Amino acid sequence: MASNEQTVLQFVPSATSVSARVHPLVIFNICDCYVRRPDQADRIIGTLLGSVLPDGTVDVRNAYAVPHNESSDQVALDIDYHHNMLSSHQKVNPKEVIVGWFSTGFGVTGGSALIHEFYSREVTTPVHLTVDTGFKNGETNIKAFVTNNLSLGDQQLAAQFQEIPLDLRMLEAERIGYDLLKPTNVDKLPNDLEGMEASMERLLALIDDAYKYVDDVVEGRIAPDSKVGRFILDTVASLPKLSPQAFDKLVNDNLQDQLLLLYLSSITRTQLGLAEKLNTAAQII
User: Fold this and answer.
1) Which of 7, 43, 83, 95 has the highest Cβ tally under 10 A?
2) In CATH, what is the architecture of 9-181?
3) Could you read off the pLDDT of 170-193 as tens digits, one per residue?
4) Gap between the Cα atoms of 261 and 190, Å rounded
5) How far is residue 117 from each of residues 76, 96, 112, 156, measured CA to CA in Å?
6) Domains in the chain: boundaries
C-alpha cells in the first residue's frame, strides 16, 4: 500500500520578532574602517557589540572590523584577532556582548551565508547589518537582516536572509554629523561657526513652521490638534525667561570660549609639529 506521507519544503521562522536599534557610533566606526581598509579589499566585515533588550530589540552600540580574505567560494576570518578585540572591549564594558556582524556593500552577498554561520556559533540569533558605502542610491543605505532556516523534512538545506526593522537612534547633534556623511561628496567639514550658523537657520525655519501652523489654526484654515497645541505649550514653557541683553551676553560668552579652545588647540598642534621636527633633526645629526 502506497504511503500518503509527503516531504514538505518549508521555512522555519524565528521564534520571536526581532528588530534592531543602531547608535551613530556604529555607523561612524564602520565608515572609518572602510576608509582605512587595505587597497585590495572590496569590502570590510566586522563584529557588532551591544545587548538584547527585554522586548527583543537588538541594541547595537559598538563595532570593530575583523580582517578577512574572501573569494567566490570561501571566506577566511582572522578568528584570533576577533577574540582578542572582543576581550579588550569587554574589559572596558563587560555588558557589551556579540549581537551580530556587519559588512559594507549593498545588501547580502554570496559569502554572507558563510560568515553568518560563524557568528551563529557565537550568538543565538545574530543580526547582519549592511552599510552601503558605495552610495548607489545617491546616499548611504543601511539595512539589518536575520536568517530563517529553509528545511526539507528534518534536514536543514539553507538559510534565508530576511530584512528586519531598523531604528537609527540619534540626537540632534549626531543627526547633523550623520547628514554630512550622506552626500556623495563633501568639499569640507564645517567649522564650529558654520555649524552654529546652519543650526540657527534650521531653528528659524522650524519656528516659522510653528508660527504658520498657529496662524492657520487661529484663522480657521486648518482644524486644531490638541496634541500639537500641548507640545507647543510645553516647548514654550521650557524656555528660560531671558532678556535680549542677557541672551546676547550668553551667546557671546559661549562664542568666546569656543574661539579660545580653537586658539589653544592650534597652538598645541604647532608645538607638537615643531617638537617632531626638532626630534627628527636631532636624530639625523
Assistant:
1) 43
2) 3-Layer(aba) Sandwich (3.40)
3) 776 667 666 666 655 555 556 666
4) 16
5) 12, 21, 9, 13
6) 9-181, 192-284
